[in-house]
Specification:
The protein is α/β, with parallel strands linked by helices. It is built from twelve helices and twelve strands. The chain is globular and about 70 Å long. About 5% of the residues have low confidence. The structure holds iron/sulfur cluster (SF4) and magnesium ion. Pfam families: ABC_tran (PF00005), oligo_HPY (PF08352).
Length: about 325
């Protein structure tokens, strides 16, 4: 299978009163066609900034400083805004947490959907309408003709998210980036939307980059998982290994603080302490103030991400070669 997205050593910085601070600090991963990779972490871990960097949506004072983002053969860090706009909503589709903000309130669903279809499938208005209604039915919207002629505000959150998925898929993207796509929805609707995304990714071989704080969603959707903390990858493996054999103390904490899957309420919070801010970024291991296993070494020396077995990388001294060089 083909690699659709390859992020290599991505650094995204923001200019603040503390100088340039990294929100994403050397992140690497890849997503193959038909595969779902989840990036998981608390708010402030850098997961959303990672997705925004990939989509070319980082605005000043933020900046992608270093690294490459290969989408197929194109390095997205090297293309201009216009080229980016062409890729987005064409080969790369996006779904966000609150679909109301992504839909234009002044136009009907059908208007927006058929615009997308006309643009991407090069068909006339009449065909776009037929196809649009078909898409709405395909994403499980009842009375699709009526919804087609409705304005976004009359729909429920779940229906709007279905519309967004229909819009995203009307361009048959190679990559779908979904940032907390179901966080605002109730549990039943959430399950239906995830099921729908899964079905569509299987049918169209779409690669999905899924940003979430919810390990229930990860278990449901992901093939591979990247766990982020303070802008870095702390664990990276397949979903089965992550749940059966988690290694990083942060990952273990996340798993412990998920009482029951499918009950996404608050951000994960039962790990003591909070994600450090730029002003409080610790030296050594960035997780050490919250880590129950921290040693003297952890306080002064930062661990690197190391391969501890096939396709399993961990950033923690507990699993590292002890004679590491001082950074
Ligand atoms: Fe904890 Fe040390 Fe591992 Fe960091 S390196 S996660 S402080 S044990
Ligand atoms: Mg976010």
């Amino acid at each position: 299978t083909e690699t659709i997205l390859k992020v290599d050593n991505l650094h995204t910085y923001f200019k603040t009163e503390h100088g340039k601070v990294p929100s994403v600090n050397g992140v690497s991963f890849e997503v193959k066609e038909g595969e779902t990779l989840a990036i998981v972490g608390e708010s402030g871990s850098g997961k959303s900034v990672t997705s925004l960097s990939i989509m070319g949506l980082i605005e000043a004072p933020g900046k992608v400083e270093k690294g490459s983002i290969l989408f197929e053969k194109t390095d997205l860090t090297k293309i201009d805004k216009k080229a980016y706009r062409k890729l987005r909503g064409n080969e790369i589709a996006m779904i966000f947490q609150e679909p109301l903000t992504s839909l234009n309130p002044l136009f009907t669903i059908g208007n927006q959907l058929s615009e997308a279809i006309k643009l991407h499938q090069k068909v006339d208005k009449r065909v776009a309408r037929v196809k649009g209604i078909e898409m709405l039915k395909h994403v499980g919207i009842p009375r699709a003709e009526k919804v087609f002629d409705s304005y976004p505000h009359v729909l429920s959150g779940g229906m709007r998210q279905r519309v967004m998925i229909a819009m995203a898929l009307s361009c048959n993207p190679k990559l779908l980036i979904a940032d907390e796509p179901t966080t605002a929805l109730d549990v039943t609707i959430q399950a239906q939307i995830l099921e729908l995304m899964k079905k569509l990714s299987t049918e169209n071989n779409t690669a999905i980059l899924l940003i979430t704080h919810d390990l229930g969603v990860v278990a449901e959707m992901a093939d591979k998982v990247v766990v982020m903390y303070a802008g870095q990858v702390v664990e990276h493996t397949d979903v089965f290994t992550l749940f059966s054999n988690p290694k990083h103390p942060y990952t273990k904490g996340l798993l412990d603080s998920t009482p029951k899957f499918h009950e996404a309420e608050e951000e994960l919070s039962s790990i003591r302490g909070t994600v450090p801010t730029p002003a409080t970024m610790p030296v050594g291991c960035k997780f050490h103030p919250r880590c129950p296993f921290a040693t003297e070494q952890c306080i002064v020396q930062e661990p690197v991400l190391e391969e501890i077995s096939d396709d399993h990388q961990v950033r923690c001294w507990l699993y590292a070669e002890k004679e590491a060089v001082v950074s």
